[in-house]
Each structure stands twice: as C-alpha cells, then as structure tokens.
Amino acid sequence: MANYVQKSTDEEVGRMLVDIIMVADDEETQERTGRWNAKFETAPTRLQAEDWIYRVWTIGGMQMKKKKEERQRRMIKQLAPELIISKLITFAIDQKKTEEQITQEYCESIVNELRKASKYESYKYLRGSNLRFEFYTEGDKFNPHCHIETQSDMKNTEMAQLFRRKFMPEKNPKKWDIYRVNVVERNAEITFEYVIEGNKKEAKMPHVLKDNKFKLSKNIDILYVI
After folding, report:
1. Strand order in the sheet with 178-187
2. Where are the domains of the chain?
3. Is residue 102 scored above 70 in pLDDT?
4. Does the predicted model carry a pTM greater than 0.85?
5. Which of these CATH numbers, 3.30.70, 3.30.110, 3.10.620, 1.20.950, describes 84-226?
C-alpha cells in the first residue's frame, strides 16, 4: 500500500512539474530572449516536457546512488584506503567553438561516442563513469573541457595513450574535437566531489556557478553517465 501511495504521489508531482515547465514566459521576456521559456526554445509538447523532467530526475537519482556508493567507499577507506583510488581524466574539446556553437546536441554527441567506445575491452574503464562538462576558467575565459571520474587499475600513461589514440584529432581529423588528454590518480572522495558534486576551491566556485547557468540555458546536463 505504501509503495502504491508513493508511486501515485511521484506521478502527481511529475505531472505538476510538467505543467510548470510548459508555461510560456511573458511576451516581454520572450521578445528579449527569443525563447518560449528558460527550458525550451519553442512551445514544447507534453512528451518533450515529460522527457526533460525524466532526464533531470534520472540524473538526480544517479547522484543519490553515487552518494550511497561514496558512503560505502568511506567505510572501506577506513579499513583499506589504498583500495579506493579514482582516475581523473581531463581533456579539452574544440577551443575554436564559440559559446553559441556549444549546444546540447554537440555535447551529447561526445558522450554518445564515449559510450560506443566503452563497449570495447580497451575502453571498458569508461563504462558507467561520470562526466562533467565545464566551460569557464580563470578570468571567465571560455575554455570548454571535460572531466571523467572512473576507477581502473590501468596505468595512467596507458589509459591516456589509448584515449589519445582513439579521440585525438590528428588520428582522425574529420571526426574528433578532443585535445590535451591528462590522467591522474586521486583519492576517490576528492574525485567524487570534484566531478560529481562540482565542489572545488572557493576561488573556482564562481566558475562552477557560471558553468551551471550556461548549461541550464543550453539544456546541457550537469552530469552524464557514460
């Protein structure tokens, strides 16, 4: 009975959220932004609105799952800290692209190609890993790049070499926009907070907030799971 009530409540809340995000901005705001509202460029169908809500809730659920996993990691860390090491993969994407050229479709095409690669044994370390796009660095410089948090016993140099071999533009100049691949080992808790929660040094937090605002305007997810 409790599960039924909870499911019914979730569905009711979902319908309410769909109704909310389908509402158009006032005419003055629409004229200024050229958009239907902050979420959609044109009037969405109910299916499109439901899909948007689903994606947001899915990411939220993944974040909750990761937090649970992190609590488990902390327990293991007390007994065997050397077992809890994460890899942080950082790479830049096409630096010639402007803010206008960075779209949801462009970002998700990168994620989809990484998912395809993860099916191969050499790139299995990408399976289920977490990816965060970032766009601004010191001085509000537009610097599109990605961070991937994953766990693997593969050597850093080998992982970076395989990544470059697959994605660097000189290997396949017509297809890839990926540059400057770097792989480092970090404590799992630090990497988790850095990639999944976006927690950084206080001096960098304004860039995180600007990133999130930019992503929201482009409908780019805060976090992707490969």
Report:
1. 178-187, 85-93, 141-150, 130-137, 224-225
2. 1-83, 84-226
3. yes
4. no
5. 3.30.70
